[in-house]
Structures are given as structure tokens and as C-alpha cells.
Design brief:
With 277 residues, this protein is an all-alpha fold. 80% of the residues lie in helices and 0% in strands. It folds into 2 domains: 46-153; 154-277, no CATH class. Helix 4 (46-67) packs antiparallel against helix 7. The longest helix is centred in the last third of the chain and has 29 residues, at 212-240.
């Protein structure tokens, strides 16, 4: 798969201003990155791949912070958000689930307001800053961490999930290119994606070891969650000043590329952990 995506990216790069680039989803670049991490894990170990996951979380969070209006007084809170990443990856690497699940939503969320209060004698704007930092940490680090944790259990399951998301993005892009207002409906995007995701989930059973019933359920869940994630993040992109015309790495491209992943990964991870592990 990493060979296939490498060829697609190369062709898209060479024909950037032609038709091929316009029919490929923007998430293709980071689909390649995810598969690179899965390959690194398969040929070495998750401990090595964990460095890549940590760097990826840092890059996504950094792009988010570059787009929001934070104060100089928030620097300790921002530092605490970045330092949460290696702690989270350590708990994933050691399979310490109870600490992974509470470190960011509990400890980081309590520490960040405290640190901001230490550096800011004036409280004006503090609530806004705390909300902005915590929101980015939860959505772009904690949710991405669920995908990393899923790959610790099985890189095949995580890879199937990423392929399903890529299929959903491709279907969504295809539908959006049609001129018909009927074809642009959200429900139709979901219905068109279902046969592809269910079939792929079923096709991968020999590698994922997920029973048929649960594979079908995951194939049904993924398009719905991907559409919810796409709709929600696009809503926030407008507020962040991210526009498709001038989108580039550092200015919303990375956030736009992983918008489905951050919503799908936590739900699928907890479904698999609850029913199958």
C-alpha cells in the first residue's frame, strides 16, 4: 500500500495543475505518512514508530497553534500542551491504558490553566486561551493518539481503518465534483461509501482477525464518522481562516488532511477494545 500511495503522490506532484490532482483527496499525503509509520512498526518495533507518531502529533498541534490568536502570556500553557505528547506516547508504548485515557483530559487540562495563571497577572482573555489550547490538545493530539494506540494492537486494523477513511474522502470528493445538488447531499455521500468500506473491511478479515459481524459494523460506522469529522472540522476551518485556495502546510493543509482521522479513530478504537480485546 505504501508503494501504491507513493506512486499516486508522485504522479499527483508531477501533474499538479492537471486533472489528476483535482480528483485526489488532500488526505492522500497523510495517508502515505500513516502507512509509513505502519511499515516502520512492522519492520522494527512500535517503540521506533512511536517517535514518528509523536512528531506527527507535534506538527498537527503546531499548525493549529499558528492559526489561533494566543497571547504571549500563554507560553507555559502551550509548552505544557507540547510536553503532553511524549507522556501520551510513553503510555501508549507501554500499553498503560488507564494513564493514557486520563493524562490529557484530566491532568493536562488541569495543569494548563494553572501554568497560564502563573504567567499572567491579568486574567483578561485567560478563559479563551485555556479553551483554545485544551481544544487543540484534545482534538489533534489525544484523538490522533487513539490511532497510534490502535496500531500498537494491530497495524493491520489501523491500516484498514486508514484505507476506509481514504475511500470515504475519495467518495466525498467525487460527489462534490458533480454539479447535481442531489448528489451533494450528506446522506448520499454516506450511502455511496458504505459498499466500499464494508467490502474492504470484509476483505481484510484474514489480516485483521476481526469477526465478520464486527467487520461489517466497522464498515458501516466509518463513513458516518468520517462525514461527521469532515463537516465539523470544516466548520472550524472557516473560523480559523483556512481557505482551500491558499491552503498549504502550516496554513491549514495538515488539519484539513487529518480531519476525518481525528473523529473516526477514538470511536473505532474504543469499539474494538470493548468488543474484541
Amino acid at each position: 500500500m505504501i508503494g501504491v500511495f507513493s506512486i499516486l503522490l508522485l504522479v499527483a506532484f508531477l501533474r499538479r495543475h492537471k486533472t489528476l490532482h483535482s480528483i485526489l483527496p488532500s488526505s492522500l499525503n497523510y495517508t502515505w505518512v500513516f502507512f509509513l509509520l505502519f511499515v516502520v512498526q512492522e519492520i522494527s518495533s512500535f517503540s521506533v514508530a512511536a517517535w514518528g507518531w509523536g512528531i506527527l502529533c507535534f506538527i498537527i498541534l503546531r499548525e493549529y497553534f499558528s492559526l489561533v490568536d494566543l497571547r504571549i502570556q500563554d507560553r507555559l500553557g502551550i509548552l505544557a500542551a507540547y510536553l503532553s505528547i511524549p507522556f501520551m506516547m510513553h503510555f501508549i508504548r507501554t500499553d498503560w491504558y488507564t494513564m493514557f485515557i486520563i493524562t490529557i483530559p484530566v491532568y493536562s487540562f488541569l495543569v494548563i490553566p494553572f501554568l497560564i495563571s502563573l504567567t499572567d497577572s491579568k486574567s483578561e482573555g485567560a478563559v479563551y486561551s485555556i479553551g483554545v489550547i485544551d481544544f487543540g490538545l484534545l482534538l489533534f493530539v489525544f484523538c490522533t493518539g487513539h490511532l497510534a494506540y490502535l496500531s500498537l494492537y494491530s497495524s493491520w486494523i489501523a491500516g484498514t481503518l486508514i484505507l476506509n477513511i481514504a475511500l470515504c474522502d475519495a467518495v466525498s470528493l467525487f460527489v462534490e465534483k458533480r454539479n447535481s445538488s442531489v448528489l451533494k447531499s450528506t446522506m448520499l455521500k454516506y450511502l455511496i461509501a458504505i459498499p466500499f468500506t464494508v467490502f474492504l473491511s470484509y476483505l481484510m478479515i484474514d489480516w485483521t482477525k476481526i469477526p465478520v459481524l464486527h467487520s461489517v459494523v466497522l464498515g458501516l460506522l466509518t463513513p458516518a464518522l468520517a462525514l461527521i469529522g469532515t463537516h465539523t472540522i470544516k466548520y472550524f476551518e472557516t473560523d480559523l481562516g483556512i481557505h482551500q485556495v491558499d491552503m498549504r502546510p502550516g496554513r491549514g493543509f495538515i488539519i484539513d488532511s487529518v480531519k476525518s482521522v481525528v473523529y473516526v479513530s477514538p470511536i473505532i478504537f474504543h469499539y474494538i477494545r470493548y468488543f474484541l480485546l
